[in-house]
Specification:
heterodimer; A: about 240 residues; alpha+beta; 11-stranded mixed sheet; two-stranded antiparallel ribbon; B: about 625 residues; 4-stranded parallel sheet; about 15% strand
C-alpha cells in the first residue's frame, strides 16, 4: 500500500539561501532524526522518496511550498507536523499535511505561483499611472525577453515570448511608506507560470518589467517571496492541497 | 534611562549591521556559508557569558566544517555554562570584498558579533598554506595583527593543531600556542582566564600564568639567537618560569575522553558531510615521511562499546546518512570487523552507511570494504606512495608489490574498475628508476585487469596516477633533508608525462610551486613572520587553492623581507643543527628520528609497532600509552 503525504511548508528568513539540493538533504536528515517512516528508492544510492514542487531559486522566500513524500506506514497527520517542526530550523515550518491518493505528484500538477516582489525604483514619478501602464503592457500578445542560459559553460541566448507565462500583475497602492530616499519601494504582486511546460522566474519577469518601464532598479536587490502555489483546473486556479 | 540607553547602545555596537549583512548576502556566492543557524549549533546569550571564544578556521566554511577538531572543541567549550564558543571561517574572496565595502568586520556565525569583542580568537592550524588567511582574518576583524600590538582589551589570539608543532613561522602573530591535544588543557586555560578577568586583567600576567602549563608556548617569552650561517644558535626564555622545553599534551584515556554527542549539521554540502566517528589516535605503521604518524603517538583506541554508543547518539542528533570511521589508518583498529558489522547491523534499516576514509593496500582492508560498500562500487583510492619497492622501503611504507597485486586483483574480481593511486616524487635517494616505477605500477594494474577472463571484468577500467611533490616535515625522520627544487620536480613530472601514454591510465600532479612554499613554511623559523605579513600585504590568501596561489607575489614578499626561501626548503640540515622546533617535546626521541633517518638511507625496514616496540620513546614519555 502506497502512502503519499502532501506537505505544505514555508521557507522564510535566511533559509531562503538554502538551495533545492540542500533542502532535500535537510528533509532527509530531519526524517531520520524524527524516525519518520519514509520510503527510500532502490538501488546503489537510496534516496528518500520526496518530491518538491517547482523548487525555488536561491534567495527567494516562500510562505507556501509543497512536497509529496512516500511513507511505508501511516502516521497521524498531527504527529507528523509536531515531530517535523521540532526537527526543522525556524524558517522552515510544516503548516499543513494531507494524505492523497492522487496518482499525480504535486510537482506535476502545480501550474502557477503567486509572488510578492519588493524592489526599489529610483526614477519613478508616481504610482497612479503605473497600474494603467501595466495593464496596457499585458494587453500585448507578445512580450519578448532575451534570456541567457549556461550549458556546459557555454552561453546560450534565446528570445522567448513570456506573455503566456504571466497571469496577472498588480501593485500595492495603499502604502504610504513607499517613498524612500528619493525613490519608491515598489510592491508588486504577480501570478507567473511555474511548471514543466512553462516556467517564468520572478527575476526574469522583473527584467522584462524593467525593460518595459525603463525603471532604474537593481533586480539583484529585490526581495521576492512566493505567497501561493496553484494548480490549473480547467482555467481556474486551485490550491494543490 | 541613560544607563539603559548605553546598554542598548553597546549591544547595538556589538552586532554587525543587519541591513548591510542582508545586502551583502544577495551579492555573494553560497550565502549560506555566513548565516549559521544550523542544526546543533549553539547560540548563547553573549552578554551573560564570562568568556567569549571565537573558534577560527582559516579556510572557507565547507572545509572548516569538515574538520573533526572543530566539532570536538566547539562542543567541549560550550558545555561549560560560563563559556560561549562561536565559529568563524575565512570569508570567500567575494564576501570579503563586500564586507570591506560595507564596513562589516569579521563576525561569528552564531550571534553575528564582531570577533573583536571576543576574549579569545583561537585558530586551528591544519595546513601551512592557511597562514595568510589568519592574517587576513585578523585584519578583517579589526584586530591588530602582531601580538605585540594587541592591548589588554584586544582578544587573545591563540592557535593549535598539527602545524603548531612548528609554531615559529607565525610566532609574531599568536599570543600563545597549545601544543598537542587540547581537550583537557583548554578548559584549564579558560578557568585561569576567568579568574584573571574578574580581577583587573593584564594580558602579560595572564600569559605568564598559562606559560607554566604543560603544552603552552608563549613565543614572546623567548629570544632566538642566530649563527653567522643563519642557523639557530640558541633559544632562551626571557621570562622567569617559561619552560625551556614545551611538552605536547595528550589525552591519556581516549576512551573516556570528551566526544560530542551532537555535532553541527551544515545546510550546504561540505567536504565531509557525515558523522565523523574517531576510532583511535596515533598510528603504528611508522612511515618515515609522515608527520601525523610521529606527532600523534601513542596509539590509543576507543572501545567498540563506546563507539557504538556514540554512533547511536550522533545518528539520533544529526540524522546523517553516513558514519565515517576516522583515524590515520582505520583498518588497523584492533576490532575493526566487529565494529563495522555492529554498525551495519544497527543502521541498515535506517539507510545509514559506514565508510572508511583511509584504506591500505591489502586484502584485509578490501574485505571490510566489501562488507560496507554493499553493492555500490565507487572508486577505490590507495596510496602506495612510491613506485618502486626500494623507494617504499626507504620510506618504510611496508607495502609489497605482492600486497598490491593481490589487492588489485581482488578489487577487480569484486567489480571495481576505477582505481586511483597516490604517489610522491622527490623522496630521499630517489632515482630515475624509482620515478619510472610509478608508471610501471600503473601499467601493471592495467595488465592485471586485462589478464582476468573477460567475463570477470566489470565496468570500464580507469586508473589515475596522482603525484604530489614531497614536502619534508618537522618531527619526521626526513626533517633534515633538502626538498627537490621546483625545476627538479618539473623534470620528473615531464619524464612521467612523456612515459605515461595510455588511454586507460591518467596522470596528474600537484603544483611544485605550492609544495615548495609549503616546505618553506613547514620548516621555517620566526624570521618568516615578516615575509608572511608582506605576502599578505601583497594580496596573498587562500594559498592552498590553486586559483588563488600566486608564486610571484610570494617571491616578491621573500625578497622584500630579505629572506632566502631556499634556505628553508632546499637546504639539507646537519643532524646536529638546532632546528626551530627542537624546543618542543613530542615524546618521540630525536635519537629515534635520527636512527630512522639512517635506516632509510639503506632501505632498512622498521616493523609495525603492534608487532613489538621499536623504542621510539613515547612509552617512557607518556605513561598509559599502549603500543
Amino acid at each position: 500500500m502506497l502512502m503519499t503525504l502532501r506537505v505544505k511548508f514555508t521557507k522564510e528568513g535566511y533559509l531562503k539561501y538554502i538551495s533545492h539540493l540542500d533542502m532535500m538533504r535537510l528533509f532527509d536528515r530531519a526524517f531520520r532524526r524524527g524516525n519518520i517512516p519514509i520510503r527510500y528508492s532502490q538501488g546503489f544510492n537510496p534516496q528518500p522518496k520526496l518530491s518538491i514542487a517547482n523548487p525555488l531559486a536561491l534567495g527567494i522566500e516562500s510562505q507556501e511550498e509543497f512536497m509529496d513524500i512516500e511513507l511505508s506506514e501511516r502516521i497521524p497527520e498531527t504527529d507528523f507536523i509536531d515531530i517535523m517542526n521540532k526537527e526543522l530550523p525556524e524558517g522552515i515550518r510544516i503548516i499543513d499535511v494531507k494524505y492523497v491518493d492522487d496518482k499525480r505528484i504535486v510537482s506535476s500538477i502545480v501550474g502557477w505561483s503567486y509572488y510578492e516582489i519588493k524592489v526599489k525604483v529610483n526614477n519613478m514619478e508616481d504610482l497612479d499611472s503605473l497600474q494603467y501602464s501595466i495593464d496596457r503592457w499585458l494587453r500585448n500578445t507578445e512580450i519578448l525577453l532575451e534570456r541567457t542560459r549556461y550549458k556546459k559553460g557555454k552561453e546560450i541566448k534565446d528570445i522567448k515570448n513570456i506573455r503566456p507565462l504571466i497571469g496577472n500583475v498588480t501593485i500595492d497602492r495603499n502604502d504610504e511608506n513607499l517613498k524612500k530616499d528619493n525613490g519608491y519601494v515598489l510592491r508588486l504582486y504577480c501570478l507567473l507560470k511555474s511548471n514543466d511546460s512553462g516556467n517564468l522566474k520572478p527575476t526574469d519577469f522583473l527584467k522584462a518589467f524593467k525593460e518595459y518601464t525603463g525603471f532604474d532598479m537593481d533586480i539583484e536587490m529585490a526581495d521576492i517571496k512566493r505567497l501561493n502555489m496553484y494548480t490549473d483546473v480547467d482555467g481556474s486556479i486551485q490550491s494543490p492541497m | 534611562m541613560l544607563i539603559l540607553y548605553l546598554v542598548q547602545m553597546k549591544r547595538w555596537l556589538e552586532m554587525i549591521d543587519k541591513n548591510s549583512f542582508d545586502r551583502v548576502l544577495k551579492k555573494v556566492e553560497k550565502p549560506a556559508r555566513y548565516i549559521g543557524m544550523e542544526k546543533n549549533s549553539i547560540k548563547k546569550d553573549l552578554q551573560k557569558a564570562d568568556i567569549k571564544f571565537a573558534f577560527g578556521f582559516p579556510d572557507v566554511y565547507e572545509v572548516g566544517m569538515s574538520h573533526l577538531g572543530l566539532h570536538i572543541l566547539y562542543n567541549l567549550l560550550n558545555k561549560e555554562d560560563y563559556i560561549a564558543c562561536e565559529r568563524v571561517f575565512a570569508p570567500w574572496a567575494d564576501m570579503e570584498k563586500e564586507m570591506r565595502k560595507e564596513g562589516i568586520p569579521l563576525f561569528t556565525l552564531e550571534s553575528r558579533e564582531p570577533v573583536k569583542s571576543f576574549d579569545f580568537v583561537g585558530f586551528t592550524l591544519q595546513y601551512e598554506m592557511s597562514y595568510t588567511n589568519i592574517i587576513n582574518m585578523l585584519d578583517l576583524g579589526d584586530i591588530p595583527i602582531y601580538s605585540k600590538d594587541r592591548k589588554d582589551n584586544d582578544p587573545l589570539v591563540i592557535a593549535g593543531g598539527p602545524c603548531a608543532y612548528n609554531p615559529e613561522p607565525i610566532a609574531d602573530f599568536i599570543d600563545f600556542f597549545v601544543i598537542g591535544e587540547a581537550e583537557e588543557i583548554l578548559l584549564d586555560i579558560m578557568a585561569i582566564y576567568k579568574k584573571f578577568k574578574s580581577n583587573r586583567y593584564k594580558k602579560i600576567e595572564f600569559l605568564k600564568e598559562v606559560s607554566k602549563l604543560e603544552g603552552v608556548y608563549v613565543p614572546q617569552f623567548y629570544d632566538i639567537f642566530y649563527k653567522e650561517d643563519n642557523t639557530i644558535d640558541r633559544m632562551e626564555p626571557i621570562v622567569e618560569g617559561a619552560p625551556k622545553v614545551v611538552r605536547k599534551r595528550i589525552i591519556k584515556e581516549l576512551d573516556k575522553s570528551y566526544y560530542p554527542e551532537k555535532i553541527i549539521v551544515p545546510f550546504i554540502e561540505t567536504v565531509h558531510d557525515r558523522i565523523p566517528l574517531e576510532i583511535f589516535r596515533g598510528c603504528t605503521r611508522g612511515c618515515r615521511f609522515c608527520q601525523a604518524g610521529m606527532i600523534y603517538r601513542p596509539v590509543r583506541e576507543k572501545t567498540v562499546d563506546t563507539l557504538t554508543e556514540l554512533a547511536e547518539r550522533l545518528v539520533n542528533s544529526t540524522g546523517y546518512g553516513d558514519i565515517s570511521l576516522t583515524s590515520l589508518s582505520s583498518c588497523d583498529y584492533s576490532q575493526i570487523k566487529l565494529l563495522v558489522s555492529e554498525l551495519i547491523d544497527n543502521y541498515k534499516e535506517k539507510q545509514i552507511g559506514v565508510s572508511l576514509p583511509s584504506l591500505r593496500l591489502d586484502s584485509f582492508s578490501l574485505e571490510i570494504l566489501k562488507e560496507i560498500e554493499k553493492i555500490r562500487k565507487t572508486g577505490l583510492t590507495f596510496a602506495p606512495e612510491a613506485g618502486s619497492q626500494r623507494m617504499r622501503d626507504v620510506i618504510n611504507k611496508g607495502v609489497t608489490e605482492e600486497d598490491l597485486e593481490t589487492a588489485v586483483t581482488y578489487a577487480f574480481e569484486e567489480g571495481w574498475s576505477t582505481i586511483k593511486l597516490y604517489f610522491m616524487i622527490g623522496l630521499p635517494t630517489e632515482t630515475k628508476a624509482d620515478i619510472l616505477g610509478i608508471k610501471d605500477l600503473g601499467y601493471k594494474v592495467k595488465n592485471i585487469f586485462f589478464s582476468l577472463p573477460k567475463e570477470k571484468r566489470k565496468g570500464n577500467l580507469k586508473i589515475t596516477l596522482s603525484v604530489s611533490c614531497f614536502v619534508p616535515k618537522p618531527f619526521t625522520p626526513f626533517q633534515w633533508i633538502g626538498q627537490n627544487s621546483i625545476d627538479e620536480f618539473y623534470e620528473k613530472i615531464k619524464l612521467l608525462k612523456k612515459e605515461i601514454r595510455d588511454n586507460k591510465v591518467t596522470f596528474n600532479y600537484h603544483d611544485p610551486k605550492i609544495s615548495y612554499l609549503e616546505a618553506v613554511l613547514a620548516r621555517g623559523d620566526r624570521r618568516l613572520s615578516k615575509a608572511l605579513f608582506k605576502a599578505w600585504e601583497l594580496g596573498c590568501k587562500f594559498d592552498g587553492w590553486s586559483d588563488f596561489f600566486d608564486y610571484n607575489k610570494w617571491m616578491e614578499a621573500f625578497k622584500a623581507s630579505g629572506i632566502d626561501p631556499d634556505f628553508y626548503a632546499l637546504r639539507k640540515r646537519n643532524i646536529d643543527e638546532l632546528l626551530p622546533w627542537d624546543f618542543i617535546d613530542i615524546g618521540v626521541d630525536k635519537e629515534y628520528l635520527i636512527s630512522e633517518y639512517e635506516k632509510a638511507k639503506d632501505g632498512t625496514l622498521t616493523r609495525d609497532c603492534r608487532l613489538g616496540c621499536n623504542n621510539c620513546g613515547i612509552n617512557r614519555s607518556f605513561l598509559g600509552g599502549v603500543c
